[in-house]
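User: Um, any thoughts?
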Amino acid sequence: MKRRLILGVVGVLVFAGTIAGALSWSWAQSTPYAADHPFYAWQQASVRFWRGTMGSANVGAVPPVTVEAAAAAAVDIPTPEIAGEPTGQPTPAAADALVAAHVIPFPPDAINQVDHSFFPLEGGHEIADCAACHTQGDYKGTSPTCVNCHALDEPHEGAYGLDCAGCHVVQDWQPVSFDHTLMGRQDCRVCHEPPPAHYGGVCRACHTDTTDFLVVTFSHDAIGAADCRSCHQPPPNHYGGACRTCHQDTDDFLQVNFSHTNFGGIDCGVCHQPPANHYAGECRACHQNTNNFLQVNFSHANFGGIDCGDCHAPPASHYPGECRACHQDTGSFQNVNFSHANFTATDCGGCHAPPANHYPGECRTCHADTRNFRNANFDHANIGNVDCGDCHAPPASHYPGQCRACHQDAGNFQNVNVNHTNFGGTDCGACHAPPPNHYGGSCRACHQDTGNFDNVNFSHANFPTTDCSACHNPPANHYAGSCRACHQDTGNFNNVNFSHANFPNTDCGACHNPPPNHYAGSCRACHQDTGNFNNVNFSHANFPNTDCGACHNPPANHYPGECRACHTDTNDFGNFTFNHGAIGNTDCGACHNPPANHYAGECRACHTDTSNFANAVFNHGTIGNTDCGACHNPPANHYAGECRACHTDTNDFNNAVFNHGTIGNTDCGACHNPPANHYAGECRACHTDTSDFNNAVFNHGTIGNTDCSACHAPPANHYAGECRACHTDTGNWQNATFNHGTIGDTDCSACHAPPPNHYGGSCRACHQDTSNWHNANFDHGTIGNTDCSACHAPPPNHYGGECRACHQDTSNWHNANFNHGTIGDTDCSACHAPPANHYAGSCRNCHQDTSNWHNVNFSHEGLTDCQSCHTPPPNHFPGQCSNCHNTETWEGATFNHSFPLNHGGANGQCGACHPGPPPGYTCFGCHDQQDMIEEHLEHGIGDIGNCVGCHPNGED
């Protein structure tokens, strides 16, 4: 009964909603309003809504919507109040309320209730949100044309028109069904870029089927006698002769019919380069069939007792003995039958080189199992009094004595207990190397306390006649004589009392090195007073005919002639007396280089007085209307017009008489660039005197409440508020009077940016004194159970758990006492990142002892899928590793290739069938695809994609 009552109520509601909706739609249609009427928007929205939900304009049709959907729509479309309107129109107040409700939302689940067969929502158009296509609340009127929605995504830039459906389908944009016949005789490259190094001719010369560009029908017969390389680039290191010498069939260049019989006794190496590290003898010594060089009929039986190594180089670090000592079958060198049992008394080192820095003794001393050299069971207890150094090399600069003199515990060499008192009168240097350049005598001569070598009590009084240099090295370039010749006080070597009077005839250079580039003669030739070498009394009068250049180097770029040609007074080289009158018509440039960027003509064209080149008398009156810029470069950033526009006096360019009064209201910026970061407005806004731009009279009083930042940029990272909030005196910006007391509880960070990586909480949480930010008194005791990471960032790659899990003392973070015993079965990787490319399974699968990670006991027994843990090499066969390899040795791969390896003359060459990595393959490298299609169609077979599915043995 209750169920029937509910259904009845719902039925009434649906019927009432249907009638109300239909009447509302009919009424809205029959009562048109003007476009500017307040009720017009509601009417249009109502029409759109009922048209969209009913699927047609039939008033009698029941809108396919639920009661809930109709109720939701009714909320957004208020029923108009028509009372009080004689014409049935709503009141102005009601109309105003309806105007704002012009965007009608889509009813819930409308996408599944509206008949959309006229534009199926499938493929790329399978959209769950109506509003994705129907924008602005439009229920109808959305164009079904692709370009209206995809205009922004259209990559062709309109090159193929606006009908996307001509090429693309709604299921997927990639399968393009473009009809190339519409392009007429246009060549493909008009739209498509050919592959690199492709034939440069017209595409249709080779390709007739634009749906499959692998089907090429180019007829090479048309090119006559032209050689292939006129269009095609041969492979690297290819035979350099004409292609037709070998290739007669241009459809298949793998079929070569070159007749080598024409070359008689000429060896292949004359034309062909053998592979790297190939046998150096004649090719025919091994190869009889020049069509297939993989078939070798060389008989090693003819070489009797000659060992393989006489012709072939063994692999690197290979056993140096004869090959036949291990290999009996020269056809497969992988099969080795060497028996170590025959060498019972011979040590491994007799044939094999041990690892670097390995124990030099016999291998069997430690290794009993020659198949696994990691199991070493050497017992040091058996060596008795043999010292460690007899077998092991100590560290560099280590004590050269016996190890047990210091180390008692061979298991831990860090425990040293040497007692120096046992060495009595033995000096430290007998065991220890002193520092570089140290005193070479006995250590105890200076050091009494071997516990602290900084305490030195050496008395030099015991060496009264011994010179310092007997023990000490003097400084670099020091006087080579006895130290006491100059120094009497060994406590202070800066006190020097050497008397040069004892060396009357000895020249200074016998003991001292003169300065660089100094006169090479005797010092006393110029210096009489050795106490002051600046007092020079050398008389050049003794060298009347000798030129200065014989002893002195002239300055750089100096006149290369004799010094006396210009200088007569050698005491003052600033006095020049050279007579330029004697050079006649020779121009100055013959001897002198003019200044940089100087006028390139003759010097006398401007300068008539060679004694003063500042007096230039060039008559510019002769150049007529020629502007100065024809000969002279103006300064950088100079006015680009004619010089005479401003300068009337060419003798003094500082006198510029340009009349700015003629420019009217033109601003200075039309001709001149203002300084960097200058006010961007008109110059005259501030400067009234164009002769002195330092006199700026801008009246800031006229800007009212406009803030300074409207015209001026504040400094970087400056407070972003108004300037006047802090600065009251615009004449001195250093006087800031901002009162922080007015900000109440506002935190500092509201105006100031904290330093990088700073605590993100309130500043006052730590800083009480804003005048000294270094006094932070944050009390961590108040944070309770809050973890440190809530405020502080841990170091990179740090344990992600709580800090207190390891650190108990926040004053010393290095004392971590995390107990791993509490983690139970949790794997190490939950907290720690394993090394790169590490096994991805649980750590405990291999490591039992977390204190030593090098002890691994993982067993591969029973495991076949290596790829679940290990990444194969690049371009490796993608199948299971166990298909080819076993876990004992990876080298012996026994893959069963069910398809014949010599099919079609492939002879084991994988690339003949696998142009890419396996398992991908192609049969169309040898078989013509079009022929195969036609032949299979004759037997009613349309799918030829999986050749080996029908031809597992490559047979018909």
Notes: Confidence is low (pLDDT under 50) at residues 1-90, 97-101.
